[in-house]
Input
Amino acid sequence: LAQGPARSPRPSPARVSGVAAPAEGPQGRHRSAMEEGYAAHQYEDSVERFTTYEDYLDSQITHTDRFYLEEDELARQLVEIGCRKGEVLSREEFTARWEAAESAKKARLQNTPKELASAEKDLTDFPFLRQLAFREGLVGTGKLSTIIYIRDRNSKGQEISGYIDYGHRLKTENFEPYFERKKRLLPRPSDLSFYNWDTQRSTSNESPNFQIIPDHEQGLLFKNKRDRKVINVDPKAESPGDNSKRHDIVTNEYIQVVIFDHMTRKKS
Output
């Protein structure tokens, strides 16, 4: 029978690696080949760059390994059972480290400061917006609690007023249109308090930061949920309360604007 072309002999290990092959059996040759080139493939503490455990094992397989073993699956098995110098993670150890790395990555992303909505906005001629911009970072990080009282007219020409939890609005709404003056910040029925002077509609709601305390003598009071301090918004009161300040904003943007700042303290 006719025979096909003769196969070229497989290069000797000495030609592949540049050193003489060890005088061992097939298993010894496989083990030695896998040890070659390991310095360039050492395990890195971070496993984030690997999508799967198989990818992790593949990163430790050398070209020499593939030449001798010919099958990646066999090479992975030998790496996994420890035919390699140094530490090789088990599947369970890899999964635990990978999940821990992912959790750490998410925590870093959550702690990354967000760009302020007021950043690079020209608010020179808008005193109220300047005051909001000045407080945006502090309120957004919880270092300052701010209640805004606004009295003005809505789109229907009706006079409305109310108290707004600035921190709650910042977390639930995009403030960039306000700083770009595409929208006007006005009280809503969902805010701390709202009153329509034309329709006599009145609402009040707690927020994540403040509890409402009706008082027949002092009027409306707000209790900060973090340090339990009470803020008195009565203009006749000598002080709005401990760690609180009242600021009457002079502006043509609204009929009336008052800002109440409260430096929060954790409850002991």
